């Protein structure tokens, strides 16, 4: 079962993300960018499932600018390239279409499961 852990909304936590990628490379399963047109995107760093089917998903919720210049996205792509991790991009509903972020994450969980990017429920 994925547990979404918000590390922020795209400010100083971008450097926390760098450390997660650099020091947890063996645990990282996937990196996903969820776009919503030109509005800020959401980034997911999905870790390998741990004990009792717990799976951490670190997020930067609506914190990656998709308008010019895309400095944060360029940094993330370079860190992922250095760690040999492929970035998967999905165009999804905008998070503001949901009453609260938890509902958005449930929607994203369904998309990730349908695309076999996270394990099915047991």
Automatic annotation (TrEMBL):
Superkingdom of origin: Bacteria
Residue ranges of domain DUF7147 in the record: 3-118
Cross-referenced InterPro entries: DUF7147
Full protein name: DUF7147 domain-containing protein
């Amino acid at each position: 079962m994925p547990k979404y852990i918000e590390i922020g909304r795209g400010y100083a936590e971008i450097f926390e993300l760098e450390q997660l990628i650099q020091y947890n490379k063996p645990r990282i399963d996937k990196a996903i960018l969820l776009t919503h047109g030109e509005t800020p995107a959401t980034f997911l760093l999905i870790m390998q499932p741990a004990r009792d089917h717990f799976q951490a998903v670190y997020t930067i919720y609506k914190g990656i600018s998709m308008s010019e210049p895309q400095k944060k996205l360029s940094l993330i792509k370079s860190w992922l390239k250095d760690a040999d991790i492929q970035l998967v991009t999905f165009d999804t509903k905008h998070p503001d279409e949901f009453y609260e972020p938890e509902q958005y994450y449930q929607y994203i969980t369904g998309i990730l499961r349908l695309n076999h990017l996270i394990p099915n429920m047991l």
